[in-house]
Structure formats: C-alpha cells, structure tokens
## 1
Amino acid sequence: MARLITAAVVPSVVSMSLPRVLGAALPLLTAAALTACGPAVTGAPAPAPIRADHAAATLWTQYGATPTTSATDVASLGRSVLWLDTEGRVWTAEPAPAGPWQPTAVVGLPSGIVDIDGIERSDGEFTAAAVDSGGGVWMWGRITGADSAGPYDTVVTTPKRIEGVSGAHKVAVGPGVAFAVTAAGTVVSWGTSTDYELLGRTAPADVPQPPQELAGPTGVIDVAAGFPAVYALTREGTVWGWGSNNYSLLAPGDALTPDEPVLLPQLSGIVAIDAEDFTAYAVTGRGTVLAWGDGASGALSTRAVERAPIDAPVTVAGVDDAVEVAAGASGAMAVGRDGSVHVWGAYAVPDGKGGVRDNDAGTAVRLDWISGTVLVAVPPRQVQESYAFLVRP
C-alpha cells in the first residue's frame, strides 16, 4: 500500500508482482513494443519503466542501507518491514539505529511467492498477504473473511490460505478488506463491509464476507486499497472506484456513489495510482502526479489547498517524471523515471538517520541521502514508522 504499478498499455499476460503500496515489475518495453501491445492512451505517452526484471536490489530503510541485497518487493508493516527475495521467500525485520540487522523468514508460506502486501492497522496490529506462483493468496496477522467453516476475524501467526481465491497474481490489503487482481484482469474482494462499503459489493455491515469477484472492472492491473475509497487501474489507463465519496474522492461535490465499482470519467491516461487517509494520487502518462481529497497536513503537496475534489485535483509541483506513487501518513512519495524520490506532506520527510523532519510548506522534497537508483519507495501509514526502499547501485 503497497501498494504500485508502472503501467500504461500492456497485455494482460505480463507478470505484475510488486506491491500495492508501490511497485509492480514490468518487462522493459520499447516504444515499438508498446505499439505492438495495443493502442496507446490518447495524449498520455507511457513512461519508460525503470525496472526491467526481478533482479536483486538493496533494501533501505529510514536509517539507510541494510545488509539485505536480494530484495525484489517490499511493504511496511508499521515498525517492521516485509520483503520478498529473488528465491520467492518472504522475510521481515524491524529497522533500528544500532545493533545487528536480524531478518526473520515468514514460516508457513509455500515456495515461489510472487507478490506481497501489508498494512499497519490503527490498533497496532498488522495484516500481511502473499500470492504464490499457483495464484493462491495467503494472509497472516489480523485477517478477516469467510470460508466453508464460516466467518472469521482473528489473528494468525501462521499464514492462512484464503479459500475461494484462485488465479491471483497481485494482492492489495486495506483496512479490514483485501483484494486480489487475477490473471484475467478481474478483482476479487473479501473481508468486512462497513458504512464505507470498501468491499465493492453490497453486504451486511460488520459481517465478514467470503471472496467474490466484483462486477464492472475488466483489464485491471492494480488496486489501491485506500480509505475510505478504493481504486482499480486498468491497462487502458482508466480508473474505477468504490467506497465513500468523502472529500469528493469519487465524484464531484457531495454526490453519492454506488456500493459497486463505477468508472471515474475524471481520470484517463493514468499509469499508477494509490490512496490513503482520505487522499488519493494518480500518475499520468506524462509523469505528473495528481492529488485530490483531504489536504490536511500538506497531503496535497501544498498548505494552500485544504480540499480538492476529483474533478479539480492538485498537480504536485516539482514532480514531472514520475512513474510510481505511494500514499502514506499525511503525504506521499513519487519515484521518478531516473530513480529519484520526491516526498511531500508536513510530517513525511525521512532524514536518513531514523528521524522525520518537518516540511511546513508540505511541498515535494527530493530525498538526496539515498545512494543509487530507487525502484520502489514505501512510506508508512502511521507517522514516524518504517519507510522502505528498493535501491540498485
């Protein structure tokens, strides 16, 4: 949350297995290859992916580089980070300013994991998920859903295979809900519905629901499981949304939106998307970042705008070559085509020493303490928790 995809026009058979919160790997495509794959998004040239494969990268945190040099995917679980290595194994560790780096393997997962995601919950717990090479989804931590044994809302330390999910190649975790993007380009949801209807389907409130495919979106390549709205990005660059229209996240004004996904006509030519804490972000094919929703704490990259509806988003100043965006606590991060990272929000600028410096203006700031090409950047969903970066020299 993950959750992110560098995506423009790509065929559905392309493997996409990096986080929601930030990063799906794409093969390096030339302009000719993109043309061969299908029609380009009108007026939105696709950015050149900076990541061409699943080769190893060094894991960095807010304290700098770690000894881990074989990471291919990463997520933040609050005080700890979760990552996937080149052999399809999943690890976790808690960054610290001193002492040994002590990775711990997640026990109970099958071999050949291809995607991971996770979030820290407001109650201090976490939810983590992984996709195996056969398309199955596994979850641990606080998990919610229903299967043949009935509804469940519990904490598990050993990963549980989610009954009723198959053909997945990407997973996105939200507050009390989870989503799988299938190889067929559909979205499957499960978890607990609330007044915000994050499941994307009508369901009784506070009753855990089993996995079910959502009506509407096709050709989906990524899901941004934000709060209180969820977004699905298609390979054509269109975006679907569902949940609550608080802060005009899904429609202009105070219009109500259906419980099921609706196409958002305000967004087109989009290549990456993410959302969190009443704010959403989208990367256009030209490399600019759009921000809308709640502007508290500089989340819209400026203190001058307190609220921006989806039909009048703020364009993040100083960022014009983005390929990825990741939403976090009161702000976001954008990874540039050149491997640079910009961060915005009043309290969301890590200093490379384990601290977070204030950014009173909320504007985008380039992180200059990371040495190398950043492939993926993951901010925490709570202020002053763990940041994570995948970096190549």
Note: DSSP finds one helix and 31 strands in the chain.
## 2
Amino acid sequence: MLNFIRMRAERACDYASNSVHIRATNKQEGINRTFEEKESQDISTRFRAGRA
C-alpha cells in the first residue's frame, strides 16, 4: 500500500515538473518568436530606407 502511494506521489511530482518545464519552454519560444519578428521588421524597415 505504501509503495502504491509513493509511486502515485512520484508520478504527480513528475507531472508537475514536466508541466512547469513545458510552460517555461513555451514562454521562451514566445520571447524568441517576438524577438525574431521585431528583428525581421527592423531589417525590412532598414532595407526600405536604403540602409541595409
């Protein structure tokens, strides 16, 4: 019985850990995507202004 409870607790901890990791990864990807979009806009603006 205690083994079963311990296994369930470990599984719950793994789930929570994975969930936090996934959210952190998604947030970082969002930051990277925003930066890439801004960078591409800056490049296209400079290109149109003849400064590329």
Note: Residues 15 and 39 are 36 Å apart (CA to CA).
## 3
Amino acid sequence: MHIPFLQIYDQGKGSIRLRINFLHMEADQNTPELVQRLKNAFPFIGNEWVKTGGIGEFIAQGVNDASPFKEAAKKVARAGWRAEVHSLGRRNTPASAPADFEFEIQGFEAANAEVHGIVRDRRWVIAHVPGVTQEWIDRLQAIGGNLSLTGWQYLAGNPTASTVAPYAGPPFRMIVDSSNRPDGIHAGMSSDGMQIAPMNPWIHMYYATTGLNARGVLINGGQQVSRQEVLSLYTRQNGWFLREEDELGTIEPGKLARRPRGPQQRLLRRAERGLEEDPLGADRGRRQRRPRRRRAGPARVMEASFLLDEYRARLRALKRRRSLRDGENPYLELMTLLVAAPSGLSAALELAERRRELASLFSWAIPNARALEVLAAHAPLLECGAGMGYWSALLRARGVDVLAYDAAPPGRSSKNAYHRAAREPWTKIHRLSSVIAARRHRERTLVLCWPPYDDDAASYAVLRAYRGDTLIYIGEPDEGATGSVRFRRAGRGRRSSALAAPARHADGLPAQCGAPPPSRAGPLLRVQALHRHRRHRPLRLVLRAPARGARAASREAPRRVSAGDARRAAGRAAPRGGEQPEQNPVRS
C-alpha cells in the first residue's frame, strides 16, 4: 500500500513527511512473510521526506498464547526493528479472560528478555488501550514501553459495565499522571486510521478533555485532561515516537515547520497582520483600501472549535430529552455558553444559525428565573400559541398551573412553521385555536409569548376574544417582529407607568448582529402596566423585550410594582417585587 505514495514522491509531488510502518497479520506460526520483511528491509532508512518506521500496527494474527505473536515479537527484536501493536480489549471482571494488552505486554517482556533493552531503545509502543489498567501501565513502563492514544471512542464508545476498567477509555488522566512521574511512561496522541475514527484531531482532543461521546453522554468520567496536556500529547510528545524529537513537535528555532503555500499562505499572512484584505484586489496586483478589523487568530479558532463541540454535544443530549425538572433551563445555558464567547469568535460559531436551531427546538424567547417568577405570580395561566411548550414545561416543573394551547402543536405527526424539530413538545400541548382557548378561560391570565407579527389571529384576535383582566405579553416593542399592527395599536394612547428602565436594544447575538458589549449592556427586558379605558376589557401586565436578542440573562435589575398597580390588581395576588429578567428573547 506504500508504493503509490513512493511514486508521488518520486515525481516530486510529495508535500508531507511520511514514515512507513509494515503491517503483518500471519496466522502461520513460522510467520514467513515477516521473516522475509526483516531480512530484506531496514528500519529508519530513507530521506527527510520518506523513511521506514516499524512493524505494525500488527506483527502477527492474534495475541493470545495460541497465536504466533510472542515469537513474532522476538523476531522483530532480534532484527532490531521497532514494533507497534494495538489494543482494544478490557477485562469486565477480575475473573474475565485476559485482555489483549496483557498478552501484548507479556510478549514485549519476552522480546526484551531476549534482546535486552530493545523495547526502550527502539521505542516499542501499544496504541489505543481503552481498557488498560495502572498495573499493566507500570509493567510496560518498567521495560521502557510506550503508549499511543486515540479518541476513537468519541464515535464508537458507550458507558462500560466493567468493574476492572470502569471507563470507556483510554484512561487519559491515569496515563498522563504516569508519564509525569520520574522516568514515567511516554505517551502521545494520534487520530488513527480514517476507517474507524475521524482524521480531525480536534474531535479527539475534545473527547480527551470532556469525556463525552458524540451523543453527549459522559463515558470517560474521571479521565479527562486539560487542553494544555492534550495539545502536548498531539505535538511535543509525538516527535519522540518517530525518533525525531529534535526536529518535530514544537515550534522553536532549529526545528522543522511547514509554511502554507498559495491561498493558505495569504490567509496566514492576514491572520498574522490582523487585517482583512480584499482578495480580488490582491489578485489584480493591488490592494483595495478597506477599514481594518481584527481577525481571530489560531488560538481563538481553537477556542471556537472547543466551544462549538461542547455546544453540539449538549444539544444532541437535549434532543433526546422529553421532560424538564425543576430548576433546569437548558435553553438559557446553551445560549449563555455561546454569548459568553469573545465577539471575535462570532464567524466561527455561526451564531445566527445557532439561534435558529435553538429557537426551533425550544422557543423564540429565552426564559430565565425572574421571568418565570413573574408568570408564576399570576397563575393560573393560559398560554396560547405555545409552540414547543418550553415556557409551559418550565412553569409546570415549578408546580405552576398552566394550560397550553396551539393550533398546530409541533411533532412528528404534525407540522409547525416556527418549530420544525422532528420531536414531540416539551410538555402536553392541547390542539385548539388560540381564539377559542382565550374565550373559554377568562379566569386565567393570558400569556402571549412572541406572537408572529404577520398573523392577526395569533395576537389581536386572541386579545379581543379574551374576557379576563390580565395579559402577559412577551415580545418586541413597537414595530418589532412580534404582535400584529392592530395588536400593537390596541395598546397605544393609554395611560401607562413604567416599572423598569427602558430596554436597550440588542439586534441579535454578540458580533453577529451587533449586540453591545457586556460593559454597556443594560436591562434588556422591561415590564409595563397598560390600563384600558373602562369601556374596554382591562389588561394589567405586559412583558416587553427588545428586538431579536440573546445576551446572557445574568445582569438582572430589581423592579418594583407601585402601590397603585397593586390596588388595581383587584383580588389577584400581585407580586411584591415584579423583578424582571434581563433577557433577549428569541419566538415561543
């Protein structure tokens, strides 16, 4: 399989340094192919671009006592080659059959006894080792053996029932701690073959630092390592395995580095200068003058990758959830995770796309604790146009009496234009027109959360049908994307008393849509008491939010309800402190 690569280098088209291992999987006890390889090839022979490496990642078929593995290891040792083998096994209980790495380490010990010091001198290695234990790490370390780790369990791993190795593995933490000891075992990381694991190193690094698999399930708990440690495993430590640690692995004077060419070189130059240049101008041989702006450097790109991986893992886990517990608010947690990132990461995070997928799964408005407290204080509630029912689910988890209605509840058996997630709502949603529901339940406080601006039936018609005395409206201010024109017009021209400072508008997520930085961000949600003329049905409470925002709802200022408002509550349990959340909604 290495011959096509050699042809590329013979033609002068090779651009990466290639180190070739020779794989042998013979079941014949005499291993004739391996014998001929060892007679007619030589280790570490070649030039700076192409060299021979070792025998592996198999040196024989199988590893148990019935296989030729141990004798093959001795032959490799006598020929002076480096051996690399792989391990995927583990013991489930102490009484279980031995794991493959146990046979392999015993084979290494036999080879090292026959050719003293060969394992340490030629840097023999075992790869993957998801089920290795401290006892066997110490045995391998004693003869100078080494470990090459991968994060392939990110795609293939599940929680294990093993009592001997109770982790999906590899045990990164255990191995890194062992390597930090004096004369400790040497360990590095790789991506392995692309048939069983992704080539992208960031995925492997994410798994090593979080212990989460692709479904967001913690399968390698207690074995996580830091970002600095995993970066060292992938760079500084790996040059050692090739016996080229003086040339590869770190960026420092005297070592090799590959500078990108062509378009990649131009991108690197822009990143170094921190400028955004006009690519068309560059192609014409002149630079077009444009305003300068900072670009995200390599460190920020790495940070965005980790952040996005964490976000996606959490989102996958949430998509399988069917209910919420008291105190939970995963929507707010996910949004806070995104908006807490530096503004320079907005392009890499694709914040606008993140907002759309979150709104489809949860709601178009982000609830927080204080918003839920205000709603709970006006129970019993009637939510019309409930969508995925996320607000109602959070309230029901708190023990609040809520009835939720939607003319087209989302789900696998029905379609909803605003919530296209192919899953059931977060809580029970009754299928009924909002107008009919509002007419039936005048004894409840009506909740309209982010009604569409282009649908009169979702706001104004519901308002006219409702015979109760209190409305809680969660949406944008006048001329926003919520509430029809007639609905907004119905609230104008009436005496009002502001219960909070005017909201500061933040059009979307940080950097993506121009939200102000945290130092300038004021309260983003306000509460107003709007009182109708006596001849109209009374409306008491309106929650309003600014246009399309999603700043983290953590900077909340206390609001007070006036004595006059309390008197006008007329028998309702008006909240003592109408403390309202600072929040950017995004459509319920």
Note: DSSP finds 23 helices and 14 strands in the chain.
## 4
Amino acid sequence: MKRAPSEAAGAWPLIGHFNLLQGSQPPHIALGNLADKYGPIFTVKLGVHRILIVSNSEMAKECLKTNDKAFATRPKALAMDILGYNYTMLGFSPYGPYWRRIRNIITLEHWIANNGNSQKLLVEMKGWFSDITLNVILKIVVNRRYVDYVSHREEKSSDEWRDSLRIFLELSGMFVVSDALPLLRWMDLGGVEKSMKKTAKNIDHALEKWLEEHKQKKASGTVKGDEDFMDLMLSLLDDVKELSNRSADTINKATCLTLILGASDTTSLR
C-alpha cells in the first residue's frame, strides 16, 4: 500500500495553510522552510484544495515528465470559467480527447498540412514567431489587422480591445479568493468577477463579429486568397459533436483567442 505524502502541520479551519503564507516572507521562502522540515514532497491545504509541494528535481521529474498526464489538468478557477469560455480555451481545458484534438489542430504541422500555400506559411511563421505582434497574429487568425479593426469602431476608444487583452492576462494570473473558498464567490471580493465578465464581453464582441463575417463569406462562396485560421476552424468543426458538448462557434472563438493571446508578446499589449 502506497503512503500518501505527509501534510504540513498548522492548518486552520476553512482557510488551511494560508496563514503560513501571509507573513513577511515570500511564499517560495515559506514553502522552502516547510520543505526543510517535512522533506522534498508534502502537502498543504489552501482553502478546499490540497496542494502537493515538490522541492526535489527527481520528484519534479516524476510529476512533470514520468506522470505528466496525471498532473495535466488544472483545478477549476473563476478565470477559466468566465474568461476561458467555460474551460474551452486550450490552456484552460482539462486533459482529455477534446484537449488533444484542439492541440493537434493548432500545432504548426497540422495548420501547414491543411493550408494550400503550406511552404510559404512555414517560412513566414519561423521568421515571425519570436517577436510576433498583435497585428500579425490577427492577420493570420482572422485576416484582420488591429489598426483596421479599431478604425471602424465608432462607439468605443481605439485602445479598448487591446486593453482588454492586457487585462485578460492580468486577471487570468490573479489569485481569486473564491477559487480557494467557493462559498465566498457571491461576495465578489475586490470586484474581480465583475471585471472578468466585462473583459470577456469586450473580447467576445470582436470575435463574434469576425466569426459572423467568416460565416457569411463561406456561405456566399466569396472567400478570396489563402484561408486564415478561423476559416480552417469552420471547416474542421463541421462535426463538432465528436469533440465535446461545446458549440462549434464557442470552440472556434476560444481557439482563435488562444492563438492571439499566446502569440502576442505581453509587452505589446501595454
């Protein structure tokens, strides 16, 4: 019978070991001190979640390489639900058939294989990827340039969508109390959930508009030139029921947003 890693002492009711991480020391120092006492692998509780702490390279290799599938799924979080189209974005979705299928779709090899001008794309992507800008990735994904998009928006400031992407990145990396203590979600401490919903709405507004334009072009047969990624997704998602119970539109928008955020350098969104 395998023995579970020991749990650090000092947990409080409801909040767990948060009290040990709220002192003057940075969290990694506090956890390092606990590792000196409990060994290279132990657990702590953060609210309702039990966290495995590993501070040994051999143990880390076991977790992240040898048994990586067991650790591939993240705990549920508010940002993944609201900002990530209810866990539809690749980086937020749990490991499984859907995750593997979407990963295959957005890998460069699969994209190239389904593009008529594959050799050109291969050369350009290699040259761009290290310092790719928001303009370029929008051109690739939805055949739009950011400057073209903002010039046609009369009701909002030109920087709002760019700011929404920046805020998305900030909110997705923020600690949210209700992730550890779900019973407190109704309080929306700090107004984080309200901000997430506003940001998600702003981003989805643009994605929905682009998706409808792509659908209209496909229906009318007026698609000209090379297909962009959103066109490719429209073709691949005809039989979406094989992937999950998510709608094809949601998968398309979430996957395109994954590429836009992943390829845009954070500094370019400031």
Note: The chain has a mean pLDDT of 82.
